[in-house]
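Hi U.,

Before I forget, here's the chain from the pilot set. I'm dumping it here mostly so it's searchable later in email.
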Amino acid sequence: MNSIKKLITLILFTLSLLGAEALVWHKASKKIKPLGGHGGHSRGMSHYELKGMSEGAKVDYYLANLEKKSMEYPNGGMCLPKSPFGNYHALVANSQADGKIYSATTYIYRHGRPAKVSPTLLTAINKAKFEIRPVHLPREHDRYTANKSYHFALYFDTQPLANHTVEFSTSNGTTLNLTSDAKGRFSITLPSDFKEVKKSRRGNKPANFIAKSSYQNHITTLTMPYHINPNNHWQSIPYGILVMLLGLLAGFFIYRRVNHA
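Structure:
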């Protein structure tokens, strides 16, 4: 029953975006065969699909070492093979329809050998004429998390776009309108809008947030997953600090007893 509710929410979320005309990345709900149709195990592979204005879309896949692979978007979605590099990768799609130009971006953390390239260089690459860039991506072992603030920037034709509207929405139903500042930046505190919470990280699937903006005949989106914040539900920072201090104190007394023995 819960899975049906989540599916209905995702469908309504997608339909609301389609009604506003957009191109949006989603993690695929089912496994997709790799290009070429070869089967085999899917360990290490990532499955993504486009929603919205995807007809004739061109895809650029940026590896963590900044290498770019360009391809046509295959009908039914994409299966990205295991990457040789660890760290963030960027998946970017561009399409055109009825005189409008659409772009969609998402960033994917993948495991592999170190690329020795900062993710800041990846986000700084001009991947579309109009795009929304994270100022900083979450570090390794971190993730976008509810009730934490993050910064993003609007760029048009390689330049920051100041004082411009950004529509923010989540697959859990939150909607907000934001405005970029004089440097094209805007910030958002991700909402804690998870409806049914279980007391474990693995028990709570991530939701998606989408930042969307329109300028002239360009429409762009940035899609990323975000996760529940344990500190708002089953973890307590003050309690954790207290336990740590008590542990240090107990260790200190044990150390003194051993030295005096």
